[in-house]
Design a protein that fits this description.
The protein is mainly alpha-helical. Helices cover 61% and strands 2% of the residues.
């Protein structure tokens, strides 16, 4: 990673301006190819450094394609002999150096100068355009190698159909058969191997084998037949390529290893049952599909990039797991045990034995443990005061067993490591944290916060490594395309010069014919065959037929009618009317819901018929205007025709039973908006099938799903069927299993989506962990890598120059909308102006010609010709920006310009460096940062000129009298507010007022002293803020004060404080104003530049985000309407509130029987209810909420389960009765989540790129001072800032210095550090006392070794020891180790938590990483983390402020709510009663999926409590469900946006130091050479 780091943002910029497709269509005509073979042309191109033509073409003027003959083989042997002579001379010169073993680095340098094979002539690539097309008779026959590198090596090439290069060895294929290259058998084998029918036959065989493998029970004959075909294929490959002697033989290709493995497993399967190994035959299809080898190579390249990041990640996870093991060891074993006859205290228990009634048998009996309703595991508790408690009659005791079948535990290192992996992968991390805090105490929340930040950095490193790997490949492709285009232009220019030198008339005529092509190509416009009009390539007969039948020009009257209709249908007003019709149709489709009234249903049906009539009329008029021939050449017209056809089909088959699904095709009408909406068009283009299929990762992903689906069924299918009772009480298969293919596919899809831990537990219970763990880890890792690769591919492809250019060519309809709106606006203005003239109101307006001219210019600009590809880049980029290239993904340029223009007023910088005030548009700059040239700061004018004009009394003479006194007072106030101590004082006051808010919880009523302090403190803070406002009014004046956004924010917050103070004085409860006073901490925004720069970026992204969000919501509207049509009214069920269970289908069949059951319970009618789930599809809004939960894949599982169990409307659900309804959610996860995420991230990155380009800054997340430090750090690079330590004078110290600075000493200490980690990892909850003593003694020895190391370094380095941060950290860790080893219990129970102690003890392990060989990449990653720290800290500050404000608001609004018993989310530990509890809840909400349980509890009805709130005469909850859901949703959206920007700030901004890394690598090479 140290050599070439390509930042993703740089790749993004190059990708937007690049057009790779043009380079793939480069082609020379035969005349130009013949001219290119002339030696003079080749020599001239070689002098101009042409990459391909100057090095690959022959200089003797002979043909490029020549048959491989015995003379060719003799020439190769002669060239090889000459090369061997030169090699022998070099070996003799270097023979003296061979005895040395330090030659590796020199060989690496020499390899750069050695000749290498051409990358354009590699096997599997297409013949470059400089060679032209080979003659048909030379296809599939041996030819001399085209690459000069192989002309001295025994190789030949064969060019197959499509000009694909295949390279073979010229050595005999099999020595014992003597199959030389000219043998008829070998040539026949080559002909068969490269024939397309043979390739198709192998692919069909593999597909048949896949079908055979997918069948649950099938005969072995088909499998043996497939193995025989694979054997025949391998034999043909061996006969054509050879076995192993040679570079291009059978076994030298790693893909052939897969063939050998499949064949061996197939033959062994005849005698041994090999479950799962036969599935590898599916992977044989990968090398046979075009482009898949390249995708696999790209993934392998990304894996190499992941190496260094994986080392850091693994090392960090080991440290986190060790700390977790020490802090929570055995904590999840404590359960609530039933103890009869006690008061729930430990004093009543005494001492127990196995024979005692309350001994271990009683404790470990599950019937004596407390279970929450619906839970499989007993309730976990803790012994600390802040840990989870037990209900009355139960006591918290140590038991056997851990939750989740014992796999979630802290008993040993493996269990702790799995927990850390869960936390990093965010797979039910909220449940893990809740269990840990219940057992170990809520004070440990800070440790999980630190771990979450660490896991975020590790995850960012992994994503950045993969992103950089793909960015490098994409950049290489763009660079290669650019070089090919440049060389293509160079070749044409050279041939043009050669043609001008010819004097014959035939050559001159040829020059005239080719002049236009040469001139155009010289301007970099590549002329390709007209692929945009496929009908032009058809036969002349078809053209004549199409022109006769599909072009209607029967008479002059008809032509006139066509012209009139063409004018009407292409008018911008028509497009605007159609947009209004489409939007109205969407509104009517969204009005459908469950239990429609008859009138509403009739209205919707009538409206649908009207819309169909309008669409039909539009299609008929367009066909009449442009003829069917031209109408169906436009893709948007084909969509319109499909909408009309499906609407007519639906109306004609509306009464046919079983065809109601045709109503779903109405949603296609929503896609008509993409014609006029660039962002929606861009979103649809991301998921376009052609765009997806061009990505090789998509095909590879399909193979991946099939492979692991079938393998999972074969490995675990029978285990699930036979051992299902281990994981379910009723011995019924769970939702996620692998007993059949469909459930196996859903399980694999579920795992790839990020939810693997629960299904892994079930698998390990029913099967062997030795099989489950590798299988699930492979699915998780490979699936995530494939999804990430597909994500990056689609992201860059959808925002590439080719894609933007293709979208810009069809933006006439979008421009027409702007023209129509402009005309309507102009018409309204003209009408209003003339009405004023008629009524005599106002003066005579000026001439309107200017506006008419402006409108004409608007029409011309909007409907002007499209920019051609041959335009200069500046005009092309400008045309793309003016049309849709920028507006496709982000807001319009006008909106961005308005955002930038307002930035000078809304968000101000600090004091200008020159000390002068900065005015813009007549408005002073920020009042907090204004200064004058004079020594005493001069305040600005108090009032505006308009105010002085209307009130002349405000104009005072400041040179004498009252005016002078007033001016002196203002100058004094200005000096006060501009003083830095005043700002520091105000920051302290804001922080204190914010801290005071944290004490205003529901328990404040029981703390009178604290309540009095808080109330008086609030009064003092309000007075201080009021004084600050008055001082600023005096200093800056009203004009400047109220033109600054931060002053306006302070003014608003102050008003809130004053109004709350007044309300309290009038007798209103103090807590009633707490939600409004929660905004007081926001005053820190006006004081912190670091948060202001982040807000500036967020503000500039608002138009882009709103535009992208609306496009995504429009796509979700399609799924919501489909969900309403599929599931409306089907999620209802009859529920027994007494047992808290559903009635089975045998008890209650439908809604009617449920109501009959209610009527039968006269005394207790409320025990049975007919209700729906909280998240359903009864209307479009409920569908939106349900889809939002499904997108997070946790509480969304309840929505999926309800859909799978649903039947008909108002019928009781049955378990998995509608199983294939899950496909709806699969499609939504793909198109509604994955593709929309690609589009949304792309819009953010594009906006980020635009903001960075406009600002001209290197990093827009940094302040000015931070940018200076950032630049200095970047220049410093990876060089060590440690000063050289001088050698001490004393002899003893001299020896000590040599000892501690030697590499062997570092290696020895590395071994000791690894031993210290090992001693920590070996400790378990069940460790015997003797082994504990051994570990304790080992720790003593290791501490003694570290102490000796400290003494030696002090003697050898002296005071320079403390000049290095790592040495200081080692010293602190040594002191902590010594203290904690003897006083661990005292520290844990009386001083502070023990987790920081273990963190410091293990901190010294970081010194191991630099000692690992080849750690340049690791140091680069650490340097990247260091460079990202300022930007991440700025975003983290805003993140923390957001959490603080929301915590205060949650504490004020939802303190009286606890969930019902058995529900997750809000309980006695996680609630909103105090600030700390509210912070814990929001931290859980920050994690993936943790927020859903809180939403579920807040929207649940009825809401109640069975206990009285302290200090209030209130029973039950005061929670408004809508308010609670809105609170959580808003927090999740804000936090998600900040997290996305944190990833962007890290991935896009921190790996931009190629020169630094290269310089560091060069420095290391020099150092090694010097030592050598």
């Amino acid at each position: 990673m140290s050599a070439h780091c390509v930042p993703l943002l740089d790749a993004w910029r190059r990708n937007i301006s690049a057009q790779i497709k043009r380079s793939q269509s480069l082609k020379l005509c035969p005349q130009h190819v013949a001219l290119l073979r002339e030696p003079g042309v080749v020599a001239s191109l070689a002098e101009q450094n042409a990459k391909m033509a100057g090095t690959l073409l022959r200089t003797d003027g002979t043909a490029a394609f020549r048959r491989f003959t015995p003379d060719s083989l003799a020439a190769i042997e002669a060239a090889k002999a000459l090369e061997c002579v030169d090699c022998e001379e070099e070996m003799c010169q270097d023979q003296s150096q061979k005895k040395k073993k330090k030659k590796k680095r020199k060989n690496k340098k020499e390899q750069k100068d050695r000749p290498k094979p051409s990358s354009d002539l590699e096997a599997g690539k297409v013949v470059p355009f400089i060679f032209g097309d080979p003659p048909p008779e030379l296809l599939n026959v041996p030819l001399e190698d085209l690459d000069p590198f192989y002309r001295a090596k025994k190789t030949f090439v064969v060019i197959s159909k499509g000009n694909v290069i295949h390279r073979f060895n010229a050595e005999p294929a099999l020595d014992w058969l003597w199959l030389r290259p000219f043998s008829p058998v070998r040539q026949a084998a080559i002909q068969v191997l490269l024939h397309s029918l043979f390739r198709l036959f192998i692919v069909l065989t593999i597909l048949a084998n896949c079908v055979f493998l997918a069948m649950p029970y099938s005969a072995d004959a088909l499998g043996f037949t497939c193995i025989a075909v694979y054997t025949l294929e391998a034999l043909i490959k061996v006969l054509s390529r050879g076995l192993c002697l040679g570079r291009f033989t059978f076994l030298r290709d790693r893909w052939n290893w897969l063939d050998v493995f499949v064949i061996l497993m197939g033959y062994l399967g005849m005698f041994i049952h090999l479950t799962g190994f036969t599935m590898f035959a599916v992977l044989k299809v990968i090398p046979l599909l075009p482009g898949q080898k390249r995708v696999v190579g790209a993934m392998a390249h990304s894996l190499r990039r992941l190496r260094d990041a994986a080392v850091i990640t693994l090392f960090s996870l080991v440290i986190f797991a060790s700390v977790l093991l020490q802090v929570f060891m055995g904590g999840l074993r404590t359960k609530c045990i039933l103890i009869e006859g006690t008061n729930g205290t430990y004093d009543d228990l005494g001492f127990w034995h196995d024979e005692d009634p309350y001994g271990p048998r009683h404790i470990n009996n599950h019937s004596n443990q407390y279970f929450l309703p619906g839970r499989l595991d007993p309730l976990v508790c803790g012994t600390r005061s802040d840990a989870g408690g037990c209900p009355a009659g139960f006591i918290c005791l140590w038991t056997e067993g851990n939750p989740n079948y014992g796999y979630t535990s802290y008993d040993n290192f493996l269990g702790a490591f799995l927990s850390v992996v869960r936390l990093m992968a965010q797979d039910y991390a909220s449940d893990l944290i809740a269990l840990s805090l219940r057992a170990g105490g809520t004070y440990n929340i800070y440790f999980f916060v630190l771990m979450s930040l660490g896991c975020f950095c590790l995850l960012s490193l992994l994503l950045a490594a993969v992103s950089m790997a793909y960015a490098e490949m994409n950049n290489a492709a763009i660079q290669d395309a650019k070089e090919k285009e440049e060389e293509y232009t160079l070749i044409l220019e050279e041939m043009k010069r050669q043609q001008e030198q010819n004097e014959t008339s035939a050559v001159a005529t040829s020059d005239d014919q080719d002049m236009s092509t040469v001139n155009v190509l010289a301007d970099t416009e590549i002329t390709v065959e007209d692929v945009q009009h496929p009908l032009d390539r058809c036969t002349s007969l078809w053209r004549k037929c199409a022109g006769t039948v599909l072009v209607w020009n029967c008479c002059s009257s008809w032509v006139i009618l066509k012209k009139i209709l063409h004018t009407v249908m292409t008018n911008p007003i028509t497009d605007l009317l159609m947009v209004i019709v489409v939007i109205t149709n969407i509104v009517f489709m969204s009005m459908e819901h469950y239990e429609l009234t008859y009138e509403m249903e009739y209205t919707l049906q009538l409206a649908d018929k009207v819309f169909v009539a309008v669409y039909t009329m539009e299609m008929a008029l367009k066909i009449t205007a442009v003829d069917p021939y031209h109408y169906f050449q436009v893709s948007w017209n084909i969509l319109d025709a499909a909408v009309v056809f499906l609407a007519i089909l639906e109306s004609s088959l509306a009464d046919v039973q079983g065809l109601s699904f045709l109503r779903l095709f109405r949603t296609i009408r929503i896609f008509k908006l993409a014609k006029f909406w660039p962002s929606f068009h861009s979103l649809l283009s991301v998921m376009h099938p052609a765009n997806v299929l061009r990505c090789g990762s998509s095909v590879l992903l399909v193979i991946f799903f099939f492979f692991f689906t079938v393998m999972g069924t074969r490995l675990f299918g029978q285990s699930y069927e036979f051992c299902v009772c281990k994981i379910t009480k009723d011995c019924e298969l769970p939702r996620w299993h692998m007993a059949d293919l469909y459930h196996s596919f859903l399980t694999v899809f579920y795992i790839v989506g990020g939810r693997w831990v629960e299904v892994l537990w079930d698998c390990m219970e029913v099967s062997s962990p030795a099989l489950c763990v590798p299988f699930y880890m492979a699915v998780t890792f490979l699936g995530t890598l494939l999804m990430l690769h597909l994500f990056l591919t689609l992201l860059l492809r959808s925002f590439s120059g080719d894609h933007l250019a293709s979208m810009a060519k069809g933006n006439g309809s979008r421009r027409n909308l702007r023209v129509a709106i402009g005309r309507i606006t102009h018409g309204i203005s003209w009408a209003a102006r003339h009405v004023q003239q008629l009524l005599g109101q106002g003066q005579q307006p000026g001439p309107a010609e200017g506006k008419d001219v402006a409108l004409d210019q608007l029409d011309t600009a909007e409907s002007g010709p499209e920019p051609a590809d041959g335009q200069p880049d500046e005009l092309k980029d400008k045309s793309l920006t003016e049309d849709t290239a920028a507006t496709v993904h982000v807001a319009t340029d006008e909106a961005s310009a308005e955002a930038d223009g307002g930035e000078s007023i809304i968000i101000q910088e600090l004091k200008p460096e020159n000390g002068h005030s900065d005015k813009k548009n007549g408005v002073e700059s920020s009042p907090q940062h204004t200064a004058m040239d004079e020594e005493v700061p001069m305040p600005p004018e108090c009032c505006t000129e308009n105010c002085i004009r209307h009130c002349p009394c405000l104009a005072l003479d400041i040179t004498q009298g009252r005016g002078k006194t007033w001016w002196t007072l203002r100058r004094a106030c200005h000096a006060i507010v501009e003083h830095r101590y005043f700002n520091i004082f105000m920051i302290i006051v804001i922080v204190l007022s914010s801290i005071a808010l944290t004490f205003e919880d529901i328990f404040l009523e029981h703390r009178p002293v604290l309540k009095m302090v808080v109330e008086h403190g609030d009064q003092v803070f309000t007075a201080v803020f009021l004084t600050e406002m008055v001082l600023k009014w005096m200093a800056y004046g009203f004009n400047v004060y109220f033109n600054d956004i931060w002053c306006c924010l302070d003014f608003f917050i102050l008003n809130v404080s004053v109004l709350s103070f007044v309300a309290n004085g009038l007798g209103s409860p103090r807590r009633s104003s707490l939600p409004f006073r929660a905004v007081i901490p926001l005053r820190l925004l006006s004081r912190s530049q670091r948060m202001q720069v982040v807000l500036r970026v967020l503000k500039g992204a608002i138009p882009s985000l709103i535009n992208a969000l609306l496009a995504c919501l429009t796509l979700w509207l399609v799924f919501s309407i489909v969900g309403v049509n599929l599931f409306a009214g089907k999620f209802y069920h009859c529920f027994n509130k007494t047992s808290d269970e559903y009635f089975t289908e045998e008890d209650v069949h439908n809604k009617t029987e449920c109501f009959l059951l209610m009527e039968g319970l006269n005394e207790r009618p409320t025990e049975v209810v007919w209700k729906t789930t909280h998240f359903n599809f009864d209307n479009v809004m409920n569908g939106y909420v349900s889809l939002f939960h499904v997108s997070s894949q946790k509480s969304g599982m309840d929505v999926i389960y309800s859909a799978v169990d649903s039947r008909l409307i108002e019928e009781q659900p049955i378990y998995e009765d509608n199983l294939y309804a899950s496909l709806y959610f699969v499609f939504f996860s793909i198109f509604g989540v994955f593709f929309t995420l690609i589009f949304f991230i792309g819009a953010i990155i594009e906006n980020f790129n635009q903001q960075k380009s406009r600002s001209g800054e290197q990093n827009i997340f940094l302040t000015d001072s931070q940018r200076g430090v950032y630049s200095a750090m970047k220049k410093l690079g990876l060089q060590s800032s440690q000063k050289a330590v001088s050698r001490p004078q004393g002899l003893c110290c001299h020896y000590m210095y040599d000892l501690v600075t030697s590499r062997w000493f570092d290696i020895g200490m590395m071994v000791v550090v690894l031993l210290s980690i090992l001693t920590t990892m070996l400790e378990t909850a069940d460790t015997p006392g003797f082994f504990l003593g051994v570990l304790y003694f080992g720790q003593l020895v290791l501490i003694f070794v570290f102490l000796i190391e400290f003494i030696l370094k002090i003697l050898g380095l002296g005071k320079s020891y403390f000049s290095t941060g790592s040495n200081i950290l080692d010293f602190i860790a040594l002191i902590v180790n010594i203290i904690s080893l003897f006083l661990a219990d005292l520290i844990h129970f009386y001083l502070f938590p023990i987790a920081p102690v273990y963190l410091l003890r293990l901190a010294r392990t970081g010194r191991v990483l630099p000692l690992i060989p080849g750690t340049e990449g690791i140091r680069t990653l650490f340097f990247a983390l260091k460079m990202a720290r300022p930007a991440l800290s700025n975003i983290a500050l805003l993140f923390g402020l957001t959490m603080f404000v929301f915590s205060i608001f949650g504490m004020s609004e939802f303190p009286f709510f606890l969930s019902e018993e058995g529900d997750t989310g809000i309980d006695e530990l996680f609630n909103f009663q105090t600030f700390f509890s509210s912070f814990k809840c929001l931290f859980i909400c920050t994690l993936s999926g943790g927020w859903e349980s809180f939403v579920y509890n807040l929207v649940r009805s009825p809401l109640y409590l069975d206990k009285k709130h302290p200090g209030f005469d209130v029973w039950g909850s005061w929670v408004n469900p809508l308010e609670g859901a809105a609170f959580i949703y808003c927090y999740v959206l804000v936090v998600s946006l900040l997290v996305i920007y944190m990833f962007i700030a890290f991935i896009l901004e921190t790996f931009d130091f190629d020169e630094v890394s290269s310089a560091d690598a060069a420095r290391e090479d020099d150092e090694h050479d010097h030592h050598d």
